[in-house]
Amino acid sequence: MTADFVRLAASSDIAEGQSRGFDPRPARLDRSANNRSGGDSDVMFVVRHQGQLYGWLNSCPHIPGSPMAWRKDAYLNASGSHVCCHAHGALFEPDTGLCVQGPCQGGHLTAVPGLYEEAGEIRLRIRAAVAG
Amino acid sequence: MKIIGLDSLVFGVPDLEACRQYLRDYGLETVAEDDNSGCYEALDGTSVVLFRADNPSLPAAPTAGCMLRKTIFGVADTDTLSAIAEELGKDREVKVLDDGSIEALDDTGFMLGFQLTVRRPLDLAGEISNAPGAAVQRPINSLAVNNSKARIQPRTLSHIVYFVPDVAKAEAFYVERLGFRCTDRFIGVGPFLQPPGCLDHHTHFLIGAPAFMTGVEHFTFHFGGPTEVIQNGHNFIEKGYQAFWGPGRHVFGSNWFWYFNSPFACHVEMDADMDMFDLEWSAREAPISADASQAFLLGYRQRWFPGPGAPVNGDYEG
Ligand SMILES: [Fe+2]
């Protein structure tokens, strides 16, 4: 039996106002979760804001593909109020992905579909083709 | 005017602890620290100075998103300080501070300071390659690679790159008022600028950008050579930091580079082996492109060796 999701983390791994990066490709997930090095850039990150989880691609709209954390899992500004691209300090609303300050202001982060919580886990729904 | 180069960059930061740790891990030496500030030096005494963002003694930043509050130049003598004060005093306020340094705004809104340089002379060999036929080689029985060296330290504050809304105006200030000259230029982007008492290809690079972006693209210290840049950058990544671009070698300036994200609202670079030019040099111009920007580009990889236990994909995946 093949699950139609990948487990990213335990729900308790991402508390309110925290963020965490992942590479959900099956061959890379362990490495992403266990390797705390910033050299393996995460594909996506998850932030918990007002209780809700939001998943965004780790790619700043200013320079697509450019990674946003300043160190592993550090995707938020100092106060935790906004997602921050630590290339030039651009700030994004954590729930809408709208850039409110910085080079890409008015632009949006790209949402990662299929993120949900169940049984105390943060999961990402995957297509059967990928799962199989 | 004998403006030698950058002595210090002063930041007002919302996350002081993060910024302190970042600079220590980068290789700077902590020389002063209290609850509200810190000073982090390279080997020659040039530095990054941190304050909490809400410190009322800090000059204003040019825009809300910029954490840089002051760019401090080192000059060779008091005559230079007087000449700068006289020149800039023609059309703007020039403050003399208690320590004898002066400060004034540039034409973009960056606060500048000028002081008798704090730079201590360094007497250290650079990275020397044993190149067949070269007169200068490493001493016999000396080692090029030191894997056990606890810390690699930057040598001196090298350059800063500003986003400016009006490149011509910003450039004119440094060239016409302070005697800088353009050493090379990316057409449609901006000039590399060299101060009058300095031979480095650039201490400043200006990038034209919308006014709301006015701020810093990156700053960097010179390291002892490419091995130090790459080894220090590798270690930095393994401490969890996020690379942005590099390692590689630029075309204009020839400097080795490795850029990282940071909590300073700008990139922070490690660089080494920049070209030096005197007045004989004529500036080049080129449209910017990947090819014009670097001779080659590499990337971080985990250490690996071909043998038992190696992953089937050779760690080339991704
Ligand atoms: Fe640079």
From TrEMBL, chain A:
Region annotated Disordered sits at: 16-41
Q: Show the ranges annotated as biased composition (Basic and acidic residues).
A: 22-33
Ranges for domain Rieske: 24-105
Q: Which InterPro entries match?
A: Rieske_2Fe-2S, Rieske_2Fe-2S_sf
Q: Name one GO molecular function term.
A: 2 iron, 2 sulfur cluster binding
Keywords on this record? 2Fe-2S, Iron, Iron-sulfur, Metal-binding
From the Swiss-Prot or TrEMBL record, give the protein name: Rieske 2Fe-2S domain-containing protein
TrEMBL record, chain B:
Q: PROSITE patterns of this UniProt entry? A: GLYOXALASE_I_1 (PS00934), VOC (PS51819)
Q: What is the lineage of its organism?
A: Bacteria, Pseudomonadati, Pseudomonadota, Gammaproteobacteria, Oceanospirillales
What this protein is called in its record is VOC family protein
**Organism of provenance:** Parathalassolituus penaei
Q: Name one GO molecular function term.
A: metal ion binding
Q: Which Pfam families match?
A: Glyoxalase
User: Which UniProt keywords are present, listed alphabetically?
Assistant: Metal-binding
Q: Which residues form the VOC domain?
A: 156-273
Is the keyword Nucleotide-binding in the record? no
For the keyword DNA repair, the answer is no
